[in-house]
Automatic annotation (TrEMBL):
It comes from Fusobacterium equinum. This is 1-deoxy-D-xylulose 5-phosphate reductoisomerase. Residues 4-128 form the 1-deoxy-D-xylulose 5-phosphate reductoisomerase N-terminal domain. NCBIfam families: Dxr, PRK12464.1. Its EC number is 1.1.1.267. 1-deoxy-D-xylulose 5-phosphate binds at residues 121, 148-149, 173, 196, 209, 214-215, 218. Pathway: Isoprenoid biosynthesis; isopentenyl diphosphate biosynthesis via DXP pathway; isopentenyl diphosphate from 1-deoxy-D-xylulose 5-phosphate: step 1/6. The keyword Oxidoreductase applies.
Amino acid sequence: MKRIVVLGSTGSIGKSSLEVVRGNADLFQIVGLSGHRNMELLKQQIKEFHPKYVTVGYWEAYQELKTIFPEIQFFYGEQGLEELASVEDYDILLTAVSGAVGIRATVKGIEKEKRIALANKETMVAAGSYINDLLKQYPKAEIIPVDSEHSAIFQSLQGNDKKEVKRLIITASGGAFRGKTRIELEKVGVQDALKHPNWSMGKKITVDSATLVNKGLEIIEAHELFGIDYDKIDTILHPQSIIHSMVEYQDNSIIAQMGVTDMKLPIQYAFTYPRRVSNSVLESLDFLKYGQMSFEKIDTQVFQGIDLARKAGNMGGTMPIVLNAANEIAVDFFLKEKIRFLEIYEVIQAAMEQFPREEIQSLEHILAKDHEVREWVKTWEKLL
Ligand code: NDP
Ligand code: MG
């Protein structure tokens, strides 16, 4: 029996993880849940899974839920995620909150020497080197990636020596605007960006898929997770998203992981690794339904997310923090219709010019830089 804490249980990944648990109740048990704003859903989840611990975004919700469920230990606010990750009696921490708020909680899970099923990509992007150092200090802790591309690479690396890797090939669906020209992108709106062709995900990551900033963040995430140089990480457009990513070895053999476009498989694999178990909620891939797999070059001139992230990643230090924080605020502005789609790139670029690279000193330094960039972008908004 694996005892699981889900940070962000009311989100897209969180809900999928609960489906995985529902599908195999003999193997998985929920001990902790967390919601930020969506209290109605959180209440339903509490009633169904009877967790021992729950954290919520606000004091008012904390007060209300405490009276409804007196048997549960509640936490709240920014500290709540960390407090939940710091309890002793669990095996796996699924970090599925969106944004940089996941970093501190992930750190706590590592310090408790737990398995981290890591969906929150912002953690490795902003704090990758810090997390890698921490993992050396807590060798019993481990990170198993949930992001589908990284799960695919992780699976394709099993049984092989990392020194023999020639390159990683990260596949990209291309997002909502695949094939569009820059002129066409000038006119797109929020609803257009939220129409992802293959994956159903939270709003922030769906916009990131449309800008291809998501693919850029995934390049940095792969570099940090697998310790592979940036010049050995390629991306390719694969509109059907059947291949979730691949590893090419020195002998030119390529190992790919395939499956349906559903996050439940990488979530369960992060729970059960190194084992593979059946689960009624996992779908089998019907090749004949697709008929063909195709591949194209990504137009990085139009979709600047990849090059911006490569630049930030290669510069290292605080630059990925700047990229990530500026992007989070820019996407939020776009979703609120304060800026246009292509201005997301402008905001990121401006932030990368504003904040010179610094060597990372500490976790506090990472979080302070993240905060500083966000505040700066918020004031910059008035100039747009
Ligand atoms: P969602 O927006 O659907 O869900 C986010 C979750 O985090 C919700 O439970 C939300 O609570 C909670 N949350 C939001 N802000 C805060 C905060 N400030 N403090 C505490 N909790 C907060 O996101 P996704 O599930 O799509 O993505 C989650 C993470 O996984 C992201 O980092 C994303 O990049 C990554 N990821 C997602 C994939 C996907 O398929 N969705 C694929 C690969 C990676 P509430 O809703 O109650 O407000
Ligand atoms: Mg992904």
